[in-house]
Design brief:
With about 150 residues, this protein is of the alpha+beta class. The protein is about 40% helix and about 25% strand. The strands form three sheets. Strands 1-8-7 form a three-stranded antiparallel sheet. It has a three-stranded mixed sheet with strand order 2-3-4. Strands 5-6 form a two-stranded antiparallel sheet.
Length: about 150
Amino acid sequence: MTKTVADVMTPEPITVKKTTSLQDAIKLMAQNRISGLPVVNDQDHLIGVISETDLMWKETGVEPPPYIMFLDSVIYLQNPARYEKEIHKALGETVADVMTDKPISIAPDHSLKEAAHLMHEKNIRRLPVVADQKVIGIITRGDIIRTMATE
């Protein structure tokens, strides 16, 4: 029988609100040894994900985009809007400032194979599991690997 996401997921994952301070989110992740958290609204609906990658901007800082000067004009060689977004993340104080606001999720009845394919295709390490718009679990690459090891 094919395993589903519900068979392998961690139920009732730790979540944060978009108003949670970054320091509190970082402490939660460190204390629980997890690399990311679903972000939910007051109805527990998924609105984002915060991960170690999102938090790295705080420590690494941001490089300004390369540019050239031509006739007293600045010509950016990369999109300056991306730079502005990166600065916003680096200076962020709340989860809303740094979270990924278009989260990818999966339903509990999908197969483990579908979850693994989605994680690989989108290069993500965790998928919030959503039913009736509410976060009911989370599945990680580690969960899938542990399941493979027991089969």
